């Protein structure tokens, strides 16, 4: 526990150490074993709705608010114009590997288990917490974005002419909410975490994820113990109300500023291990693959990168006016956004946007820009953010086969008529 694993560089270093110590063969065997374990334990028949039952997403998805992508739904950015700081829960994007499970909170239990706890309990004799137990513990509230690691993936093709695999999101696979719940650290301490603990792996109660015929078990992804003990929440409220079913009811993990996959929904158990843990979600997904990366990929992705979005429809048609008030939001997983610049001439000239409203550490920054529009025609609107680490959105994001971490300046097409 000496390394500060909340620091990305240290974490990556620790991870590459793990990888060096685990031959591909062993790792493959480990993966198969863990996928098998997911199968054997099932999803809890009483908890998960049958796969054929209903739509993968429970809440209404009106087309003026959402773009449908299979089991997922993307928020339309134009919906955020004129809204307050937070993304309303009804509008928040949904990323479901399978389908939203129906969970009975009276029988729901969070099971904490593994070799990193006193007495090394197995899943059968795990330390259990009921919903009421969590509600009775001291609560904290945190404003944070959750963003899919593939947010902006569609722009690899549109803007860079590169084919990548995965959901072709525009920029709407992100939202900011006020999450209330119990610090994961408190639950782990109550469960008897020891100095031996290395990795902490929450797992969802949604059904097994099957990727092209291969059953990978239930969605789960390890967190280094230092991050788990730092600012991670077991959240039961979103924007002041109980979590909606699609966003993890009754309890989800919220890992501020990290890749959305870390924020496991419908959490049912948490393994606390004294050895490094692997799941497909930190080995075959959520790493960078392709030119410039080793065959097993980069280190597992942790913090999200920079992004900016205009609160306008993609391909918006705007009636001509001499001045348009453009609005948008920018955010970064590496710290607060310090500056946003806008270009309306394809990137030749840039001018500062005016920041508006609060700047919580893990949230986004709202801004506006008065565009003196030369006349009817086609334009590309560009917004470029710089965060407190000095990082600025680049013109191009380096290619990676799964299309993660698109951070280049989006060229937002509009037509003025
Ligand atoms: N159990 C479970 N947790 C999950 C997922 C899932 O499919 N199952 N998807 C993950 C991914 S990839 C993302 S981006 C976020 C999305 O959270 P949201 O649907 O509340 O927006 O949840 C994460 N947690
Ligand atoms: Mo995601």
Automatic annotation (TrEMBL):
This protein's UniProt keywords: Metal-binding, Molybdenum, Oxidoreductase
A single BP term in Gene Ontology: sulfur compound metabolic process
Domain Oxidoreductase molybdopterin-binding: 97-281
GO MF annotations, alphabetized: heme binding; molybdenum ion binding; molybdopterin cofactor binding; sulfite oxidase activity
Names of the cofactor(s): Mo-molybdopterin
Domain Moybdenum cofactor oxidoreductase dimerisation: 322-406
Matching SUPFAM superfamilies: E set domains, Oxidoreductase molybdopterin-binding domain
The keyword Lyase is assigned to this record: no
Record flagged with keyword Oxidoreductase: yes
Entry-linked Pfam families: Mo-co_dimer (PF03404), Oxidored_molyb (PF00174)
PANTHER family: SULFITE OXIDASE, MITOCHONDRIAL, SULFITE REDUCTASE
Protein's recorded name: DMSO/TMAO reductase YedYZ molybdopterin-dependent catalytic subunit
Organism: Thermomonospora cellulosilytica
Classification lineage: Bacteria, Bacillati, Actinomycetota, Actinomycetes, Streptosporangiales
């Amino acid at each position: 526990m000496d390394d500060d694993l909340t620091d990305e560089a240290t974490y990556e270093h620790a991870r590459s150490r793990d990888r060096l110590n685990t031959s591909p063969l062993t790792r493959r065997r480990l993966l198969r074993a863990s996928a098998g374990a997911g199968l054997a334990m099932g999803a809890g028949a009483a908890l998960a709705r049958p796969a054929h039952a209903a739509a993968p997403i429970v809440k209404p998805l009106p087309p003026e608010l959402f773009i449908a992508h299979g089991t997922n739904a993307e928020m339309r950015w134009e919906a955020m114009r004129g809204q307050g700081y937070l993304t309303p829960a009804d509008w928040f994007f949904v990323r479901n590997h399978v389908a939203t499970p129906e969970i009975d909170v009276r029988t729901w239990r969070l099971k904490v288990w593994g070799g990193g706890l006193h007495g090394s309990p197995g899943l059968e004799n795990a330390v259990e917490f009921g919903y009421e137990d969590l509600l009775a513990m001291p609560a904290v509230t945190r404003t944070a974005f959750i963003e899919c690691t593939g947010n902006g993936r569609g722009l690899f093709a549109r803007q860079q002419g590169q084919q990548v695999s995965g959901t072709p999101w525009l920029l709407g696979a992100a939202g900011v909410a006020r999450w209330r719940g119990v610090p994961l650290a408190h639950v782990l301490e109550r469960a008897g975490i020891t100095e031996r603990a290395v990795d902490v792996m929450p797992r969802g109660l949604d059904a097994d994820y099957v990727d092209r015929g291969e059953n990978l078990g239930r969605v789960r992804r390890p967190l280094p113990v230092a991050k788990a003990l730092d600012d991670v929440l077991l959240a039961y409220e979103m924007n002041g109300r109980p979590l909606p079913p699609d966003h993890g009811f009754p309890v989800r993990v919220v890992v501020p500023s990290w890749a959305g996959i870390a924020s496991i929904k419908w959490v049912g158990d948490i393994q606390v291990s004294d050895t490094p843990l692997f799941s497909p979600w930190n080995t075959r997904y959520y790493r960078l693959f392709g030119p410039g990366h080793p065959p097993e990929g980069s280190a597992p992705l942790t913090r999200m990168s920079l992004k900016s979005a205009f609160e306008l429809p993609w391909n918006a048609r705007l009636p001509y006016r001499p001045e348009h008030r453009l609005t948008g939001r920018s955010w970064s997983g590496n710290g607060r956004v310090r500056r946003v610049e806008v270009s309306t001439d394809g990137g030749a000239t840039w001018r500062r946007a005016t920041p508006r409203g609060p700047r919580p550490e893990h949230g986004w920054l709202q801004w506006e820009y008065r565009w003196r529009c030369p006349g009817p025609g086609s334009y590309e609107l560009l917004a470029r953010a710089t965060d407190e680490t000095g990082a600025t959105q680049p013109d191009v994001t380096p290619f990676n086969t799964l299309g993660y971490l698109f951070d280049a300046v989006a060229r937002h097409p509009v037509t003025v008529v």
